[in-house]
Amino acid sequence: MHLAYPAVLSALLFCTGLYGVLARRNAILVLMSVELMLNAVNLNLVAFDVWLSRAAKETLHSGQALTLFTIAIAAAEIGIGLAIVLAVHRNRGTADIDKLRDTAEGPGTGGSGIEDPGSSAAEKAEATA
Amino acid sequence: MTPAAAVSLAAGHPGFLSPTGVEIAFLLVGLVTFGAALVTVTTRQLVHAALWLVVALGGLAVEYLLLTAEFIAWVQVLIYVGSVVVLLLFGLMLTKAPIGRSPDADSGNRWAALTVAVAAAVALVWVVVDAFRTTWIDLNGPAAGSTHVTGESLFRTWVLPFEALSVLLLAALVGAIVLSRKATADTASGGTAPVEAPPTAPGEKEGAR
């Protein structure tokens, strides 16, 4: 098999995940896109490991070991990420990352947090919590 | 490398115009995987996005099988399709995601995102094809990723990272539990009835979430 096939598929999947991370508004959909990007990296690792295990006699199978590590770290990441998203949703009532602008800099963002009563109430609740 | 040298280097391998059976299968499954990934990042129904993610991840497992990495394929099926997608679906339900079409699934900068993604895709595909168009993976012979081979390399060479990873998984588990339980404990203790709050109160909060 040509190495170009898995490499191109992996590049396309990575860019799909990149679009999802940049364009999605729901935090869980962003997490799904991050999973797509991680899987693209995994496919690359596996393909290059299979190629190198044929090309070189002595191989440590580092690509497949790294793939297993990436899968485990992705599982940990999705657990922590979902816990954070649930905590944010519990405090703010939304999982919409466009509305989480408390640490945003620049003009136009500072005023919205003060004028929005729900946001300030949520901030107060979070401060007292 | 000059084009003539590249052609002579590629002459030993089959060209792109006469694909083998494995390549055709890889291409078809790859198309399905890429299409499912595209639907995942563009659909407006949040639950459908998670379900199309199953198709994309399952397609990737088939690609691993075609690359003779059997153990990785089954790990992919177990962890991604089995647990990660289920976790994502739980997250969607716990955050009260709308069931039908939600009009605000995409943010306003989707055209900028599309530009960035297409530019990155073009650049990456161009570089990758230019670099690896003559590289050939020999898939004959014993499988490169059977359980025997993977286990041997994992437990001979990569034992220390493997054990460190188990500690990391434990830390992530404890961290997720702490993150999930902190607010309920604070609400229970900061409420009006801190003393008489029985252990059922967190349970009710869990159910209400």
Give structural notes.
The complex is a heterodimer of chains A (129) and B (209). Chain A has 129 residues and is mainly α. In chain A, 76% of the residues lie in helices and 0% in strands. Chain A folds into two domains: 4-96, Helix Hairpins; 99-129, no CATH class. Chain A is built from five helices and no strands. The longest helix of chain A has 31 residues, at 62-92. The relative contact order of chain A is 0.10. Chain B has 209 residues and is mainly alpha-helical. Helices cover 72% and strands 0% of the residues of chain B. The model of chain B is unreliable at 4-11 and 190-209 (pLDDT under 50).
Low-pLDDT sequence parts of chain A = 109-121
Helix content of chain B: over 70%
Whole-number total of structural domains of chain A: 2
Calculate the mean pLDDT score of chain B and round it.
81
Number of helices of chain A: 5
**What's the number of extended β-strand segments of chain B?**
0
First CA to last CA of chain B: what distance? 62 Å
Characteristics:
heterodimer, A: 129 residues, mainly alpha, Helix Hairpins, 2 domains, 0% strand, B: 209 residues, Four Helix Bundle (Hemerythrin (Met), subunit A), 8 helices, globular, disordered C terminus, transmembrane helix (chain A), NADH_UbQ_OxRdtase_chain4L/K (chain A), transmembrane (chain A), membrane (chain A), transport (chain A)
Outline of the structure:
The complex is a heterodimer of chains A (129) and B (209). By secondary structure, chain A is mainly alpha-helical. Chain A has helices spanning 4-23, 27-55, 62-92, 110-115, 117-128.
What is the fold's blueprint, element by element?
The complex is a heterodimer of chains A (129) and B (209).
Chain A: H1 4-23, H2 27-55, H3 62-92, H4 110-115, H5 117-128
Helix pairs in contact in A: 1-2, 2-3
Chain B: H1 3-10, H2 21-42, H3 46-66, H4 70-94, H5 110-132, H6 147-156, H7 159-190, H8 200-208
